[in-house]
Amino acid sequence: MTSALPEVYKAALQVGLGPNPNKCCVLSLVPLVKLRKIKVPKDVAITTLRLVECSNSEKSFDTRSGLGVYKYSEHKEDVNRELEEPSKNFRWNDEELRSMARMEASLVRKGEKFLNLALMRMMDGKTRESIQSVTRRTYHKKMVMEETTRIDTMVDECQEEDDIKENTNEN
After folding, report:
1. How many CB atoms lie within 10 A of CB 4?
2. Torsion over CA: 20, 21, 23, 26 (sign)
3. Cα separation of 49 and 30, whole Å?
4. 69 in a domain, yes or no?
């Protein structure tokens, strides 16, 4: 047995793994093995072990899926509580899409260059990426065109009313 094996076994025992002469888990020794400062026999397989710990108990697991299976079986209430929390990926409702189309149409009329950033500042809780993904869609472009024509017709009607008032005041 070389001098590295006792250290390997100690590291494996510290994380709760029984000593196995054919497979040893190395935690902090991997960089030293790669630099060839510690010699490990060829019959010993060295694998890195990334532990994932349970926040409710002191148990640790090799993978996140193992932790998930354990949490679901042992801490079901906590898992259900986490699932009830709203996710970060919020869906866009029709009202938000329509108001964003209105905002974009008015920004286009004003000559704004960076539309997505301006929309992000105007819409709380929406990221630039989510706004960008919506503005690329054809139905959004159609809504912006509809809003632009609606604004243009409103402006034209207001100008016509102003022209009529000016003509009546002149008479």
Report:
1. 20
2. positive
3. 10
4. no
